[in-house]
Each structure stands twice: as structure tokens, then as C-alpha cells.
Specification:
Blueprint (H helix, E strand, L loop, with lengths): L3 E11 L11 E10 L2 E7 L8 E4 L4 E4 L1 E3 L11 H8 L9 H10 L2 H17 L2 E7 L6 H11 L5 E7 L10 H9 L1 H6 L5 E6 L6 H13 L3 E2 L1 E3 L7 H7 L4 E4 L5 H8 L4 E4 L1 H7 L6 H6 L4 E3 L13 H11 L4 H8 L1 H6 L16 E4 L6 H4 L6 E6 L2 E2 L4
Parallel strand pairs: 1-4, 1-5, 6-7, 7-8, 8-9, 9-10, 9-11, 11-12, 12-13, 13-14
Antiparallel strand pairs: 1-2, 2-3, 5-15, 15-16, 16-17
Helix pairs in contact: 3-4, 5-7, 12-13
The chain binds zinc ion (ZN).
Length: about 400
């Protein structure tokens, strides 16, 4: 393997250079040098240094790899019939998660691993080089532990989501289930996880239960994040800010107080437009958040119920078309924004010292991600400086 690689004649290099509040930034007619697993140099193509190997981008765009900070990938079964029924007029209900729980409990480790690897490869082909992966379809000590252990095989960003929904065997006794989530289940899962999450929503967990789960996780060294405001306004977003959660996810329904709280915090608002697409709900008001100064991330929420897409380009296209984000804002949110939501400083940017996670599009600019929706534009992916096999 060559010690250094020069990618030259890049039509548009998206750097997201830190500074200027960490906004979207590009270099036209650019080049980039990779050494080992890091970016060593970026600048004008005309001034590019020599390297051991050269790739000619021939005017194509190069971007940071996508950072998908919200995904549920450890599950069995599928729910296409439920999706079809919903599109025919039935409302989405959080309890639909239970059918995936039954299928996941019945699956072998090998079946779950195969599904996980299939989705991870699908994400890579679409330019995702960092992704978060949640448990939450096991909901027993054994099944949650194997879910986080399997997730840890494919990503360091593992989230313990024992508090996804109250399983049927605890019907009418969510307090006893929360005790399990905060006790023996957490004991089993903490060593495999970096994050703790809770679905704070009517039909799932209330704010006091959510606080108990996140506080218990934090006491075991896990960092909090939260599902909040997906179906209606609620106290989840302010709880996220109160606990300095890295991210409040969904944020589809927000009060003015929620927006103010986010704007004066380090908590990222992670928007998941695939879920609105898949449930035919109104999209979150990204402009209101951006105009208030909130840091916004975009993620897929990939899961078999409400958002069975692994495609960050699809989410970028929805954000531009239906949430009135500019193409630059959407790409920033899908790269550097996702990195912020995972409290990562080594990804989401293409500057010297950053991890060499980057994608080359079969297009001259980032805008094509929204301009040509549904078209597979990702031509090449480098992950940690190595060119990935996209199969
Ligand atoms: Zn989710």
C-alpha cells in the first residue's frame, strides 16, 4: 500500500473547515493528500504536493463521508405490510415496534449479524463512513446484551436503548420494566455501549422514566441521547438539555421554549426526515432551528418500522426539498452535524489531521445529492484512508 495518496483535480472539495461557527465550506479546483488514515493536506489543485500515488478526480466532487448518528440496525423481520397499510390511511403508533421485538427475540445471533452486516454494507455504498447503532428490539437482559455486543462488531458508536418501548410482558407495569432497564439490563449492556437512549413519547416512556434511564446510564459512564418530539410536543427536548445530552432526536414537534433551550445548549437537534416520509407526518421545521442558532444534524433513523432507509443522500434530498435547508446546510448536517451529535471531532471534516473518511461523487458538486434524488452518485469511498470495496 502506498504511503501517501494524492486526489487531484477535485471540482469541489467540501471541507466543512472548522471556524466561522463550523459552517459548510468548500474549495474549488482542489486536491487532497491522504497519509495513513489521516488527511495530510488540502488546497488548490495547482499547488498540490507530490505523493506516492495519484487519483484523478476529473472534476468530480469530494465530500466528508456521511455520519449517520441515528440508526436501529439490530433486528429481524420486516414490516412492509404495516407500511403499506399506513400509506393506505392507518396512523403510525409507537407500539408497532413490538412485532420487530418478537422477530428479533426469535432470531439467532447469526441471523441478526447477517442483517446488521447487510445494512452496514448498504450504508457504505451510499457514502456513510461513521454510523451509530442502537439496541432496542430485544428488551430482555439477554437480547439487549447480544444486540449491543453485535452492534459493537460494526461500530464504536453503540447505543443502549433498552427503553425503546415497554415489552408486552410488562404491560401495565412500566415502572417494573424501567427498574430492569436501569438495573440488570444496564449492567449487562454498559460494557458494550458508549451511549444510553430513551424513547420519550406518549405510548413509550414518560419524562420521569426517561430521566431515570438516562441518569442511571450516565452513572455507568454512558453518554445520554434521547428520542423526543416525534409525535407531539413533550418534555423530552428540555430533559435532553437539562442532562447535557449530545443530541435530541426527531424534534418534529417543538415549543418555543424547546427551541430556546436547544439554542443555548451543546445539544444537537438531530432531524430524521426518513421517519416523516415513512409515516407521512409533517417534516420538522429545520429553518426555525437554524435561524435560532441550533446545531442541526441529519440522520436516517434506519429501522424496519417508520424509516427503512439507510440512505443519507435521500435524507439530504428530503431536507433540501421539504425542510428548506440549503444544499450546503443539509450536507453539513449530514457530515459535521452528525459528528457533533456523536461528540466526534475527527470525522465530518476534511482538513489536515481529520480522519481520511471521504466520498467521491459522480457529479461536480454536493448539490447533486438533492438535484438528482434517488440516483446512486457515490462513486468511491475511502474509510480511514483505505479505499472501500463497494461490492
Ligand atoms: Zn430512532
Amino acid at each position: 500500500m502506498a504511503a501517501s495518496l494524492l486526489i487531484t483535480r477535485i471540482g469541489e472539495l467540501v471541507t466543512n473547515a472548522p471556524g466561522e461557527a463550523g459552517r459548510f465550506a468548500v474549495i474549488d479546483d482542489a486536491a487532497l493528500v491522504i497519509e495513513g488514515d489521516r488527511v495530510a493536506w488540502t488546497g488548490s489543485s495547482a499547488r498540490a504536493p507530490a505523493a506516492d500515488a495519484v487519483v484523478d478526480a476529473a472534476g468530480r466532487a469530494v465530500l466528508p463521508g456521511f455520519v449517520d448518528s441515528h440508526a436501529h440496525l439490530v433486528f429481524a423481520g420486516e414490516r412492509s405490510a404495516e407500511f403499506a397499510a399506513r400509506m393506505a390511511g392507518q396512523p403510525y403508533q409507537a407500539g408497532g415496534i413490538r412485532s420487530t421485538v418478537a422477530a428479533t427475540r426469535a432470531a439467532t445471533d447469526a441471523q441478526l449479524r447477517a442483517g446488521l452486516h447487510r445494512l452496514a454494507q448498504e450504508m457504505l455504498r451510499q457514502g456513510t463512513t461513521t454510523f451509530e447503532c442502537k439496541s432496542g428490539y430485544g428488551l430482555t437482559v439477554t437480547d439487549e446484551e447480544r444486540s449491543v455486543a453485535l452492534a459493537a462488531e460494526v461500530t464504536p458508536e453503540v447505543t443502549y436503548l433498552g427503553a425503546h418501548v415497554v415489552p408486552p410482558e410488562f404491560d401495565g407495569d412500566s415502572a417494573r420494566y424501567v427498574d430492569l432497564v436501569c438495573g440488570p439490563m444496564l449492567d449487562a449492556c454498559a460494557a458494550h455501549s458508549r451511549w444510553v437512549d430513551v424513547f420519550c413519547e406518549r405510548g413509550a416512556f414518560g419524562v420521569d422514566e426517561a430521566r431515570a434511564v438516562l441518569t442511571a446510564g450516565r452513572a455507568r459512564g454512558l453518554l445520554p441521547r434521547i428520542h423526543a418530539g416525534q409525535l407531539e410536543p413533550g418534555p423530552g427536548v428540555r430533559l435532553a438539555v437539562e442532562l447535557d445530552a449530545a443530541s435530541a432526536d426527531h424534534c418534529t414537534f417543538l415549543t418555543p421554549a424547546d427551541v430556546d433551550a436547544l439554542a443555548s445548549s451543546a445539544t444537537v437537534a438531530t432531524l430524521l426526515p426518513g421517519a416523516e416520509f415513512g409515516t407521512r407526518q409533517p417534516y420538522p421545521d429545520a429553518r426555525r432551528l437554524l435561524d435560532a442558532g441550533v446545531v442541526v444534524a441529519l440522520a436516517t433513523d434506519c429501522n424496519p418500522g417508520s424509516s427503512y432507509t439507510s440512505s443519507m443522500p435521500f435524507c439530504v434530498a428530503l431536507a433540501v426539498r421539504d425542510m428548506r435547508m440549503t444544499t450546503g446546510e443539509a450536507v453539513w448536517a449530514a457530515t459535521a452535524g452528525g459528528a457533533r451529535a456523536l461528540r466526534r471531532t475527527d470525522v465530518g471534516y476534511l482538513v489536515p489531521g481529520a480522519r481520511a473518511d471521504l466520498i467521491m461523487l459522480d457529479a461536480p458538486s454536493h448539490a447533486y445529492l438533492a438535484y438528482r434524488p434517488g440516483v446512486p452518485l457515490v462513486r468511491a469511498v475511502w474509510q480511514g484512508g483505505r479505499r472501500a470495496d463497494l461490492g
